[in-house]
Amino acid sequence: MANMKLNILERGKNELRVELVGEGHTFCNALQSTLLKDETVEFSGYRIPHPLVSQPVFFIRTKGEHDPVKALIDAAKKLKQELEEIDKSFQEAWEDEKNRSRGRGKG
After folding, report:
1. How many angstroms separate the CA atoms of 77 and 35, rounded?
2. pLDDT digits (tens, 9 = 90+) for 42-95
3. Would the pTM count as exceeding 0.85?
4. Which fold has domain 5-105?
5. How many CB atoms lie within 10 A of CB 79?
6. 8: exposed, middle or buried (C-beta count within 10 Å: 0-12, 13-18, 19+)?
């Protein structure tokens, strides 16, 4: 698994703006969706200034005393867990289908 590179563009008490090097809409949409489920997050969004030459710029604003960096890390962990669960379910379904296919082939 490759490591993601982040460039911190701006960091404040409740705001964080980072560039996600090498990422696109697929990952950014999933991360944004996960962040927005967090009750400590007031706003989360991203933009890709130019799809051919730009990296996504992600923005997070948290409520109260909540740290936006912690919110980002927590969201990444939750997203990883969800993807691992999806992978496990897919692998189990694939094995079930292979076993059913073997049973149909005998006759």
Report:
1. 11
2. 999 999 988 788 899 999 999 999 999 999 999 999 999 999 999 999 999 999
3. no
4. Gyrase A; domain 2 (3.30.1360)
5. 16
6. exposed
Contacts of 7 (CB under 8 A, 6+ apart): 18, 19, 21, 55
Q: Other CB atoms closer than 10 Å to residue 6's CB: what's the count?
A: 15
Q: How many CB atoms are closer than 10 A to CB 57?
A: 18
3-state DSSP call for residue 60? strand
Residue 43 phi/psi, 5-degree rounding, is: -150, 145
Dist CA 52 CA 9 (whole Å): 20
